[in-house]
Every structure is written in C-alpha cells, then in structure tokens.
Amino acid sequence: MSAVLIVGAGPVGAVCALALQQQGIAAQVVEAQPEDARADSRTLALSHGSRLILDRLGVWDRLEDATPITRIHISQRGAFGVARLSADEVKVPALGYVLPYAALTAALKQALADAAIAVDYGVAVERIEPGAEMASLHAADGSARAAPLVVVADGGRGEAAPKPRFERDYDQMAVVCEVQTELPHANQAYERFTPEGPAALLPKGDRYALVWTASREAAERIAQLPDAEFLVALARHFGGRQGRFLSADPRKTFPLKLAWTGSEAADRVVRIGNAAQTLHPVAGQGFNIGLRDAWELASLCGDTQNESIQRGDTPASEIGSAAMLAAYARGRRADVLGGVGFTDFLVRVFSNDLAPLRHARGLGLLALEVLPPLKRFVARRMIFGARG
Ligand SMILES: Cc1cc2nc3c(=O)[nH]c(=O)nc-3n(C[C@H](O)[C@H](O)[C@H](O)COP(=O)(O)OP(=O)(O)OC[C@H]3O[C@@H](n4cnc5c(N)ncnc54)[C@H](O)[C@@H]3O)c2cc1C
Q1: Full-model pTM
Q2: Helix, strand or coil for residue 115?
Q3: What are the residues whose beta carbons fall under 8 Å from the beta carbon of 207, sequence distance 6 or more?
Q4: Cα separation values, 171 from 70, 191, 225, 279, 314, Å
Q5: Could you tell me if the CB of 281 is within 6 A of ligand 1?
Q6: Considering only the top CATH level, what class is 4-165+258-387?
Q7: Ligand 1 centroid – CA 112 distance (Å)
Q8: One digit per residue, pLDDT tens: the chain, 388 residues?
Q9: For residue 38, how many other CB atoms are within 10 A of its CB?
Q10: Between the N and C ends of the chain, which has fewer C-beta atoms within 10 Å?
C-alpha cells in the first residue's frame, strides 16, 4: 500500500508524486483522463522559482518548448506610468518561462513513468471518504483505494469539491490565442492594464501568447471578430510597441474568478494547487503557487517520516496526521493568501476608470520604475512567493 494517494495527474499532482518519491515516500496517482488523452492548448507562465522545482525533479531538462521572459513591460492604457522589470536586476537568468500546458504535462507523464510511479489512468474519483487512520477514494468504476494521506490535486473540478470559503466573480473572461507581431519579441512580455481588465502578451516560440481579459459580453464579441477586425482591435488595445499585429490564431475564451477553498479538507485529506485556490491569470500567480504547494507538502511528508523513524514509530502513520496537515496549512498560509490578495488587488484596482485611482496607479507604476528596492521586492515576490 502507498503512503499517499494523489487525485489528479495534472502538473501539481504529478510534481507532488515526483517530489514525494525524492523523499523516499511511495505515492500512487489516480487520473480521470485516459493515458493517451491530449492536453488542451492553454499556455502557462512559469516563474523562475517553478523552474527550480522542476530542475530538482529532473523535469526541466525534458522541456524543449520553454521560452524565457527576460523583461516585463507594465503599463496602463490612456494614463501615465510605466514600469519595466528585467531579469538582470533580480540576478536571475529569466523572470519566468512560457510554455504549452501540453508540453509540461507530457514531460511530467514521462517522468512519472521513468520513476515507476503508479498512475491509474482513466479512473475518475467520485467520492473521498475521510477517516481517523486512513482516507479512501471511491472511483466511478466501483474500485476503492485507501492510504494514510489523500492529496486532492484535481484542479477543483472533481465531484468531491467543497464549496469555496471565499469566491469572487470578476464578471471577466479571458480571450486567448497566439499572435504574430511585426517586431520580434526579444523575450519581452507586456502586461497592460485597461479599465476593461488586464491584457498580457507573453513571448512563446517566435510568437506571442495573448491573454486579453474583458467583461463577459465584450470578450464573447472580441473572440468572434473576423481576423482583420480582431487585429485592428488588438492594436488599439495594446498600442504599437511591437509594430503591427500581423496574424492571430482562432480565439478561445475562459471565465475568470477567484475561488479560495484552502488546503484543510478533513481527516487525512488535503487539497493543493487549483483544488485549493483558483486565481485570475493576471501576474501568473496561480500555477506557481500550486507547484509550491506540491513541493512544500512533499517536503513536510519527508520531514514527518524522518521524525517518525527517529522516534522508532511506524513511519507512515504520522504522514497525514491532523498535526501534520495543520502544520502544512500554517506553513502555506502567507504564500497562498499573499498571492490571492495580490492578484485580487491588481484586478480590482486596475480594472476601472476612476480618476483618483488612475493617478494612484500611475504613481505606483512610477515608484516601481524608479525605486530599485521596490522593483526587486515585487520581482522576487512574483518569482519565489512569500519566501522571496
Ligand atoms: C485556459 C486557462 C489558461 C491558463 N493560463 C495560465 C497562465 O498563463 N499562467 C498560470 O500560471 N496559470 C494559468 N492557468 C491556470 C493553470 O492552468 C492552473 O493553475 C494549473 O493547471 C493547475 O494545475 P493543477 O494540477 O492544480 O490542476 P489541473 O491542471 O486542472 O489538473 C487536474 C488534473 O486532475 C484530473 N482530475 C479532475 N477530476 C478528477 C477526478 N474526479 N478523478 C481523477 N482525476 C481528476 C484532471 O483530469 C487533471 O489531469 C490557466 C488556466 C486555464 C483554464
């Protein structure tokens, strides 16, 4: 029997399983999708801190499609204030990396297979039963599994998802696609705040990945514009820093909300990644917090096991105990709530056209531009989370 059962072989569940194995703890993963399922076309922005985690797990070297971001240009439309962050200033090789979700999940799937970590593909968990000594998983195919710790990394989409403790519907949707600009990106990303919502251009391969947020109604309309009209609207929205917008892929939309459920679930059950918090994509915080969840949980399991061995206890019994899960929740609180608060602040303070706030934002961006310590603080917060 494995000491840990993980629901979901998405990036967070897979990283957790690999990190647990490095701690000498056997994990078994249960994934609803079949083994040969193709991942969707979303784009991920990884922080430098996430790269370090993937490095330590031997996954980074398997990724060929990651595009480094060496500079970020932050501005607001129709008002003063520009801030520029660069990797050199923070003394890291890149502020972050852009890569297809499909490339990351494929590399992780291979890493799980190479590490001989058991993954039950095509098994959808329907019910999770907490317990004092063991928690059990009950799947749609009638099978059941039990372990001292169940880690829920199902992206918050599972049947057993509890109601979030805090939710905010931004009434915004993201329009996403890849675009070609006249000028090469030179590894520079753009974050542009507008009263309708933030928009980002992320260097991806030799093109840009666009994330354009707007009200639901506007986003539906923008996504359906014919190519030529879409490119004109995009140029109006972003300005001409990258020259003209030459072409765009078909557009997709997805709804944006904040949902904070927290890691605390019940006896011997813990939630991590998007199952614990779903964030607006502005500033690319959600995914990176999820990877830190996985890493920190595995480290704590390792420490718990070592302490148990030193005391001469049965190692597995302390993994998933109430004391361990409380320590995990305490340890993650500052990073998670910091990311939730920072993201929520950016969306709400920047997505409006009130004159006093417009000026305050301009001053904030100016301060970020001219005060190197503030710049380093913000960059390190985005790269490493609360420990930055
Ligand atoms: C369109 C889109 C664009 C995004 N862009 C960005 C971005 O640019 N930057 C960023 O940082 N974040 C972005 N995000 C968020 C990012 O995708 C998530 O933070 C990340 O995928 C979370 O990883 P996860 O492993 O927690 O969940 P997921 O990636 O959702 O993985 C969950 C896994 O659990 C499995 N599963 C679900 N239910 C069950 C069940 N009942 N039983 C067994 N298995 C189950 C699923 O099949 C899946 O494999 C985006 C999200 C979306 C939807």
Answers
A1: 0.91
A2: coil
A3: 178, 179, 180, 181, 185
A4: 32, 20, 20, 14, 50
A5: yes
A6: alpha beta
A7: 18
A8: 788 999 999 999 999 999 999 999 999 999 999 999 887 778 898 988 899 999 999 999 999 889 999 998 888 776 666 778 888 888 888 989 999 999 999 999 999 999 999 999 999 999 999 999 999 999 999 999 999 999 999 998 766 678 888 888 888 899 999 999 999 999 999 988 888 888 889 999 999 999 998 999 999 999 999 999 999 999 998 888 899 999 999 999 988 888 888 887 779 999 999 999 988 877 678 889 999 999 999 999 999 998 888 888 766 678 999 999 999 999 999 988 888 887 787 777 666 666 666 666 666 666 666 667 766 777 676 666 666 5
A9: 9
A10: N
Cα–Cα distance between 296 and 276 in angstroms, integer? Answer: 14
Ligand 1 center from residue 14 Cα (angstroms): 12
Which sequence spans correspond to the domains of the chain?
4-165+258-387
Nearest CA to ligand 1 atom 12: 287
125 lines ligand 1 (CB under 6 A): yes
**Residues 256/167/129/325 CA torsion (nearest 10 deg):** 100
